[in-house]
Amino acid sequence: MENFEASIVLAGVGGQGTLIAGKLLGILSLKLGLDVKVSEVHGMSQRGGSVITYVKIGKEVHSPIVEPGTADFVLSFEEVESVRWSNLLKKDGVMIVNSQKIKSLPVLLKQVEYPSDIKASLEAGAIGDTKIIEIDALGAALECGTSKATNIVMLGALSKYFGIDDAIWKEAIEEAFAAKPKTIPLNIEAFNKGKALA
Amino acid sequence: MKKIMLGNEAVARGAYEAGVKLVSSYPGTPSTEITEVIADYKEVSCEWAPNEKVGAEVAIGASIRGARAMTCMKHVGLNVAADPLFTVAYTGVNGGLVFCVADDPGMHSSQNEQDTRNHGRSSKVPVFEPSDSQECKDFIKHAFEFSEEYDTPVILRLHTRVSHSRSVVEICDPKPIEVKDYVKDPSKYVMMPANAIKRHVVVEDRTKKIIKDSSDLTKNIGLHKVEMRDTKLGIITAGATYQYVRDAAPDASVLKLGMVWPLPMDLIKDFASKVDRLVVVEELDPFIENEIKANGVKCEGKELFTMLGEYTAKMIRAALTDLPLPEEGIDATNLPVAPGRPPVLCAGCPHKGLFLALSRLKVQVMGDIGCYTLGALPPMQAVDTVICMGASVGMAHGFDKATDGVDSKKTVGVIGDSTFLHSGITNLLNAVYNESAITLIILDNSITGMTGHQQNPSTGRNIRLEEAPAVDLEGLCRSLGVASVRVIDPVDTFGSEKVIKEELDKDVVSVIIARRPCALIPTGRAKKGVEVSVDYDKCKACGACGRIMCPALIMGDDKKPMIDAEQCNNCGLCVNVCKFDALMKGEE
């Protein structure tokens, strides 16, 4: 485990739980005995804007920022955000896209169109063994009882490609939600669903 | 024990471990969480001050009384607190005193990109700069000790990528809080000319001593690190930029500065002599570069790098190495364009109805700092100017005087409750005293919104959410001499428009308080039983409700609205703008 390294991008819209997902990956790294940095954006950009969290895990991590072409994983919590941040994914990396569409005001006002066939466009552009996986993470979260679990469904999907034992993931989930122990079973269920969907 | 901590949390933890007794701050992104986390340590006296100058003066008082004290702010906040800073530099301290100042290169949430190191140099206050969360904790602890040892206030300069990044921190036990004795000493603490002249000598001697001591790595007072690798390229850097440098040029030798003012010139000269090529990599101003050059050391810097925004490892790699760029996984040539996602006023935001009214009135709007700055964006585009905290009031008065009162008939100032208390009061006093006819609208949403919902002197709660005295805004304005003070509900956008028009027509200073709680705080959240609904038979698809740009109103292909019940705050603004009674809500 000591040579494990990963750069993860969590892209979404303010309020989708990317910050909590980033925190959980931080806890996971600590359990693996590894160094980790998580970079967040607060303030004005959170007001309905597009938000991005970077997570870098390894023996020794320097910059908290994931550079273009270096992300092993891009998790896009909203469909079109996958296009906005596609340049961060490295060749042969894995992109996991939540099919949920959150229309921004220019789209709601019909000033611009929300693009269709996003998954097909991403697949057409994929180079080498780059994988594009689309799942209905919001749907799976709602089956578990709350849209708030969308972020954990996404992490479940990530876990399929991440190469870390489920048991360690589950410990990390328990620790992340220790303040709200009643939500732990629900989040474990969300995690399992995400893994099954990916 | 190891924990993952936000840089700001680590600063708070470090201050706590160092035995800080008092923290007084004004919120400002990206510094806010430091003080919020301190509030969780019950043994520390922790408070929101109405502005940064007050916070600094409270901390200075506590320091001179003998307690370790800290004040936290964003970069522009230090402009407000600069007055006390420049003179406490002369008096020195008793208990350790630290100003935590968070810069925002790239302006994620700020109105300018100023570089706090300049304030350090011009006030002659040493500046330390950590590069990750562990250093945030270590540096603040060191800063308190350094402050007491050298009898000087200290600036801990943070910035967005350090304040808002999480990394691993080793937690230690706190040092017990000790308050030293206070001994009356006017020659040190009364800064009138005869004393200040002598204290200035002390300041210059102190700086010389710090420069000398910090070049001695065995003393480690500057927290500098020399990392000798390949000597073809030597880089001098500090803070988060150090992390980018390590990613970009892993083989280069690096002098990582902990204290970035004053600089350890002997150490720098020694490092320069050991490398073939010396480059300074620093975001924003050529601060280190110019200091080094002024001391006769040859180096490269801003001819390679920009003075704008944040740096990246990619940028540094391209400038200093011939390493190839990483290969991207998706060819973007044929990808669709992602629609923009500008920040917006939330569903139920009380500012919306007010800005719609101002937009219809086509008045000139002197804006201020807060969520309502977003009133400058479409569809309202109502705001003419935004400069700094409190400027709306003074600028409206300036428009009045520049036109002999003419523009006061068509100009308003808009300012939030917290911003008004921060620096609007003296401005309003000035407008009354100098016989203006301005109309000022105080957007009283009962919270400091943009920075993430902090309490302020008008909310009735303190930082620990305990009950606290609440200022009476109407009474305050009247006591300043404002002749006309009225209160409106901004969701009643047409009623608000009428009141604004009446007040614009008056030849005296008017204050209109637009009062409704922020939609994101408990008192402002959606009320049950008053859900908004649409009668599609009555809807004429006129588009009036769409122009509110409410995130809870989705326009169908037939241009008729649908309500997103998850998002809707039931505020009723859309109901008020519908001329065909097609939108309805239950009685409150």
Broad CATH class of the largest domain in chain B: Alpha Beta
Major sheet description of chain B:
7 strands, mixed
Continuous helix count of chain A: 8
Which homologous superfamily in CATH is the superfamily of chain A?
Answer: Pyruvate-ferredoxin oxidoreductase, PFOR, domain III
Per DSSP E runs of 2 or more residues, the count of β-strands of chain B stands at 22
Q: Mind telling me which CATH architecture of the largest domain in chain B this is? A: 3-Layer(aba) Sandwich
Tertiary shape of chain A: globular
- What characteristic shape of chain B results from the CA principal axes? globular
Category by helix and strand content of chain A: alpha/beta
Mean pLDDT of chain A: 93
Q: What is the strand content of chain A?
A: 15-25%
Tell me what portion of residues of chain B adopts beta-strand conformation. Answer: 15-25%
| Radius of gyration of chain B, CA atoms, in whole angstroms | 27 Å
Assembly level: heterodimer
Mean pLDDT of chain B: 96
User: The CATH topology of the largest domain in chain B, please?
Assistant: Rossmann fold
Counting helices, strands and paired strands, the structural category of chain B is: alpha/beta
Task: Please provide the count of β strands of chain A.
Answer: 6
List keywords for this structure.
heterodimer; A: about 200 residues; alpha/beta; Pyruvate-ferredoxin Oxidoreductase, domain 3; 6 strands; B: about 600 residues; Rossmann fold; 4 domains; seven-stranded mixed sheet; 21 helices; 22 strands; about 35% helix
Write up what this structure looks like.
The complex is a heterodimer of chains A (198) and B (588). Chain A is of the alpha/beta class. Chain A has a single domain (6-102, 129-197), classed as 3-Layer(aba) Sandwich (Pyruvate-ferredoxin Oxidoreductase, domain 3). Chain A contains 8 helices and 6 strands; from the N terminus they run βαβββαβααβαααα. Chain A has helices at residues 18-31, 81-84, 105-108, 118-125, 137-144, 150-162, 166-176, 184-197; strands spanning 6-13, 35-39, 50-58, 71-76, 89-98, 131-135. A 6-stranded mixed beta sheet of chain A has the order 2-3-1-4-5-6, sandwiched between helices. The longest helix of chain A is centred in the N-terminal third of the chain and has 14 residues, at 18-31. The two termini of chain A are 23 Å apart. The model of chain A has no long low-confidence stretch (mean pLDDT 93). Chain B is globular and about 80 Å long. In chain B, the strands form 6 sheets. In chain B, strands 3-2-4-5-7-6-12 form a 7-stranded mixed beta sheet, with helices on both faces. A 5-stranded parallel beta sheet of chain B has the order 14-15-16-18-17, sandwiched between helices. A 4-stranded mixed beta sheet of chain B has the order 9-11-10-13, sandwiched between helices. The longest helix of chain B has 23 residues, at 193-215. Chain B has 588 residues and is an alpha/beta fold. Chain B folds into 4 domains: 2-215, 3-Layer(aba) Sandwich (Rossmann fold); 227-320, Rossmann fold; 350-524, Rossmann fold, CATH 3.40.50.970; 532-585, Alpha-Beta Plaits, CATH 3.30.70. In chain B, 35% of the residues lie in helices and 18% in strands. The relative contact order of chain B is 0.08. The interface between A and B is large, with 66 and 58 residues. Strand 2 (35-39) of chain A pairs antiparallel with strand 8 of chain B.
